[in-house]
Amino acid sequence: MPLTPRPIAQTLLAVEQSEGVGARVRRSIGTSQLRNLSPFLMLDHFSVSPGAGFPDHPHRGQETITYLLSGAFDHEDFAGNKGTINTGDLQFMTAGRGIMHAEMPHQNADGSANVGLQLWVDLPEELKKVEPRYRDLRAHEIPSVEADGGRVKVKVISGKAYGTDSVRDLAYTPVWILDVTVGPGGRVVQELPGGWNAFAYTLEGHTAFGDARTGVGPFHNVVFGREGEGIVARVDADAKEDARFVLIAGQPLDQKVVQYGPFVLNSQEEVYQALLDYQSHSNGFERAKDWKSEIGKSMAH
Questions:
Q1: H or E stretch covering 278
Q2: pTM here?
Q3: Rounded distance between C-alpha atoms, residue 242 and residue 263, angstroms
Q4: Which pLDDT tens digit goes with each residue over 107-142?
């Protein structure tokens, strides 16, 4: 039986803007055009040059998934956790009841920027107060699969594609992440869990989704409707380059989202409490008092 493709609900160009200290991001979820797409709160495609970065800052109530496309990034938090992710690696961070950390780029020998994607995923209300945690997924641990005579290559970060399963579940909220490269003349047919919200973020080349006649270029978020069984995507046979996109799907949460910067909760009162807890170093933010990261000190002034 052929797969019934999901319709395209919305296509957005992610316009570059500044964020953090000297960083450039293309934000496609978490904007006025697409505030959130449960369970997803934000998607940033970031480019961070040496001397820029994301110095010490707090979070509460969400998970962040960072996928490094090129370069290397260091992280450090107030609990003493430290580490580095390199090209092709991912870091899954659960903020839970509260964390304060820094994310800073490596100084690449050639002076190039560090580029990646950061996705914010909402936590179910009953898990908003879990203890913070990290899980790293290294590039060599990610299974990959080829299809359509080698014209389709999929890195199965989370979920399932062409009979290949990902390593393990890394987030509390169920999420699929597939990094898809399609050569000229290639066609992708990918099932997705029923009822989940899903989107594709385009990185390179031009990809035609569903029955569209024209391809979508880089830096677009293609949001799919929930009807249908999955997505179909293709690249013209006469295309001059491969196309690459990240396909992401997640189980929607039936809950209210009240967000104030890095605090994501379910009511205005809980946001006020988060601000108070952070300022008074209590209820999860005790270790934030007088804490300063070592890597944040490298910021150029």
A1: helix 268-280
A2: 0.95
A3: 38
A4: 888 888 999 999 999 999 999 999 999 889 999 999
